[in-house]
Write a structure and sequence with these properties.
The chain has 139 residues and is mostly beta strands. It has 1 helix and 7 strands; from the N terminus they run αβββββββ. Helix content is 6%, strand content 35%. The structure holds zinc ion.
Length: 139
C-alpha cells in the first residue's frame, strides 16, 4: 500500500469527536446549547450567539454543492499526480459549509445546487476524511 502523502489534519481534543465520527461513518458536529445551531469547525464560542455551551450531535450527511475551484498547481507534493483537481465547497443540510473533494468522475453537468452524499475516505488507519459523491437518488 502506498503511504498517504497529502496533508493530514492535526486533531486536537476540541475536534476529536468530529474525527472519531468520520471513522464510524457518521458526522458529528457541536451544537449550541443556547440557539441550537451547529458549528464547523468546533469552536469554543457559538458564532451566532456567543454561548460557550454546546453538545455533540450526529447530523445527516446530505449536502448541496455551493462552489468549486480547479487547482492547476500542486501546492503540496502529494497532489502532483492529481493536477488538475477540484476542491468543492458544500453546505451540509445541518447548516454549515466546508471544503472537500468530490469522489469519482466529475459529471459534465454538475452545477451549483447539486445534491451530494457523504463518502468516508479512510486515508490512513487513524484518519478518515469527509468527501462527497453525487447523490444520484436525489438529484
Ligand atoms: Zn448559539
Amino acid at each position: 500500500m502506498t503511504p498517504y502523502n497529502k496533508p493530514l489534519p492535526q486533531i486536537d481534543p476540541r475536534q476529536a469527536r468530529f474525527w472519531q465520527g468520520l471513522r464510524e461513518r457518521q458526522i458529528w458536529l457541536p451544537t449550541c446549547a443556547n440557539c441550537a445551531k451547529v458549528r464547523f469547525p468546533a469552536t469554543r464560542f457559538c458564532g451566532h450567539c456567543w454561548s460557550d455551551e454546546s453538545h455533540w450531535q450526529r447530523v445527516p450527511g446530505g449536502a448541496t454543492l455551493q462552489a468549486y475551484a480547479t487547482f492547476h498547481k500542486a501546492y503540496w507534493a502529494g497532489f502532483a499526480a492529481d493536477v488538475p483537481y477540484r476542491v468543492i465547497q458544500v453546505r451540509l443540510d445541518a447548516g454549515v459549509s466546508l471544503f472537500s473533494n468530490l469522489v469519482g468522475p466529475w459529471p459534465p453537468a454538475l452545477a451549483q445546487g447539486a445534491r451530494l452524499k457523504p463518502f468516508f475516505d479512510d486515508v490512513t488507519p487513524e484518519v478518515t476524511l469527509l468527501k462527497f459523491c453525487v447523490d444520484e437518488a436525489n438529484p
